[in-house]
Write a structure and sequence with these properties.
Chain A: It holds the Pfam family DmmA-like_N. The complex is a heterodimer of chains A (202) and B (321). Chain A has 202 residues and is an alpha/beta fold. Helices cover 19% and strands 28% of the residues of chain A. The two termini of chain A are 16 Å apart. Chain B contains seven helices and 17 strands. In chain B, strand 3 and strand 4 form a beta hairpin. Classes of the chains: A alpha/beta (202), B alpha/beta (321). Bound molecules: FE2/S2 (inorganic) cluster.
């Protein structure tokens, strides 16, 4: 099951919806890992849309599991890349040639959704006009508020900053500009007093 | 008085006949001094003391937003209107002292846009004139598509085509020219925002076409000043003020409240800003909603009215004001 219902939280925490086909001459779909399942659903709900769609997909730890089925969607263009990070310049190129009316669908992990959103907003689409659907892992992309370093795939709270080594408390406070949640030193008041890490949403 | 915004006492320092329909008025601060800077798209509410009636009409400021010496507005004569434009055309003289409001902007540029695509119809050109000056100063990219009947009544066509020949496209409807909208909207680079000011039909046409082509709502901006329409006179009880007032045939509900010295809030006086929203305590009859503010549900509920443009017909109306 790739769906997870996040509990209500503070206003800065992103909320995700369910992808719905929209009017438009062209569609850009960016997904990672289990996000593929959301693409299957949107394709099933509107069979015409795929002929006008460009899919960028990053399997992450799902390996080959979704690839065959993605190919069968017969999208106008399907690109399968090793990682989102390695495909940013390709995405920028796609956005440079795009026109107003392009519909964007982001699905998969929060890290992918957040980072792709950053690029697309920079290209000129308002963030409220971009559709998102979370699928798969609830791991987070965290920024250390102290050293500013980014730690990917954080699954426990607290966790150790991969840059400065501080133990950080996982907050729901989110920065759209950095596409990352904000992590704050957990033992600032009582140095050394570090709670045992627990898995997020466990 | 707390209603509306702060007021500025000004003197009319110039009146120019732009063409047979439009006059341009220049206001400077009475006694000298700077006027506030504004942003392109802002309007000012001009107070007109027309015998026993005080009219308050909003007009887009068309001068350079950075020019603090003077504001200019253009007024199109509306022979069938309620009289505000006729007052400006026939009664106002150079040297007259008037009162205008601080600028209010309900049609601001979104400066995050990478390109500003402007679509104007008729006198709807005025907010764009200020916006274009602002964008030129900032060196932002814009493109104007301006539709008018013909050159004789096409306000500022010559000025626009000579100052901004590459950005300006004029369409004379008398010559059968019209904007090829789908063609225009198709292929605009990502980050383009579209702005529309003109007659209602034009706004609806552009809005709906853009939406059907997948333009996000957030990048479609429009401004339409609704002038209050005349209608049957009606009576209203204002509960807070404990006053019963009569709204005349050519008066708006807001104007009637003001005439009775009730301090009613407003900003745009054209059904767009939401500032004048008023709760209905009870009613027996029919609302004539004319605003762009309330949604269908609020209208159906019969619990809200926008006194700047909307009216009422029926037995009784009690408002929380
Ligand atoms: S004053 Fe703006 S909606 Fe009435």
């Amino acid at each position: 099951m790739s769906k997870f219902k996040f509990p209500n939280s503070i206003i800065s925490r992103p909320v995700y919806g369910v992808l719905k086909p929209r009017n438009g001459k062209s569609h850009l779909m960016i997904a990672d890992a289990e996000g593929a399942e959301a693409l299957f659903e949107i394709a099933a709900s509107n069979t015409a849309i795929m002929a006008k769609s460009h899919i960028l997909y990053f399997p992450k730890n799902t390996g080959q599991s979704y690839i065959k089925k993605l190919e069968k969607l017969n999208a106008a263009q399907l690109y399968i890349g090793p990682s989102y990070e390695a495909s940013v310049s390709r995405l920028r190129r796609v956005l440079e040639d795009a026109h107003v009316g392009l519909q964007v669908y982001l699905t998969g992990t929060e890290s992918l959704i957040g980072q792709a959103m950053q690029e697309i907003v920079a290209a000129g689409i308002p963030h409220t006009a971009i559709q998102t659907e979370h699928r798969g892992s609830v791991a987070r992309r965290m920024q250390c508020v102290h050293c500013k370093g980014i730690t990917e795939d954080v699954v426990t709270d607290p966790f150790v900053c991969s840059h400065c080594g501080l133990h950080l408390f996982v907050r729901d406070h989110y920065s759209r500009r950095h596409a990352a949640f904000q992590g704050v030193c957990v033992d600032a008041e009582n140095p050394g007093d570090i709670p045992d890490p627990v898995e997020l949403y466990s | 008085m707390s209603a509306g915004t702060n007021k500025i006492a000004v003197t009319v320092t110039d009146i120019i006949e732009v063409n047979q329909l439009v006059k341009r008025f220049k206001f400077e601060r009475t006694g000298g001094g700077d006027l506030p800077v504004f942003s392109g798209g802002a309007h000012t509410v001009v107070e007109m003391l027309d015998k026993e009636i005080t009219r308050l009409n909003p007009y887009s400021i068309m001068s350079d937003p950075m020019d603090q010496n003077a504001y200019t507005i253009s007024v199109r004569r509306d022979d069938k209107g309620r009289g505000g434009s006729l007052f400006m055309h026939h009664q106002v003289r150079v040297g007259d002292e008037m009162v205008i409001s601080y600028p209010v902007n309900l049609f601001a540029l979104d400066l995050r846009a990478k390109k500003h695509l402007m679509i104007a119809g008729g006198i709807g050109i005025t907010p764009f004139l200020a916006q274009i000056k602002q964008l030129t100063t900032l060196q932002y990219h814009f493109e104007l598509h301006y539709s008018v009947r013909n050159n004789t009544v096409g306000s500022y066509v010559d000025e626009l085509t000579s100052f901004y020949p590459k950005n300006t496209h004029i369409y004379y409807s008398d010559d059968g020219q019209s904007i090829d909208l789908e063609q225009l909207l198709d292929g605009q680079p990502l980050g383009t925002h579209v702005y529309i000011c003109g007659p209602k039909d034009m706004i609806t046409w552009v809005y709906e076409t853009a939406e059907s082509m997948g333009w996000p709502r957030e990048v479609i901006h429009y401004e339409e000043f609704l002038a209050p329409q005349s209608g049957k006179p009606f009576e209203v009880l204002l509960e807070q003020s404990n006053k019963t007032i009569q709204v005349g045939e050519h008066q708006s509900l807001l104007e009637a409240m003001e005439a009775a010295d009730v301090d009613a809030p407003y900003l745009c006086r054209g059904g767009a800003c939401g500032q004048c929203e008023t709760n209905v305590i009870s009613s027996e009859g029919q609302f004539i909603h004319r605003d762009h503010w309330l949604d269908d549900e609020q209208r159906k509920s019969g619990k809200k009215i926008m006194p700047c443009v909307s009216r009422f017909e029926g037995k009784s109306l009690v408002l929380d004001r």
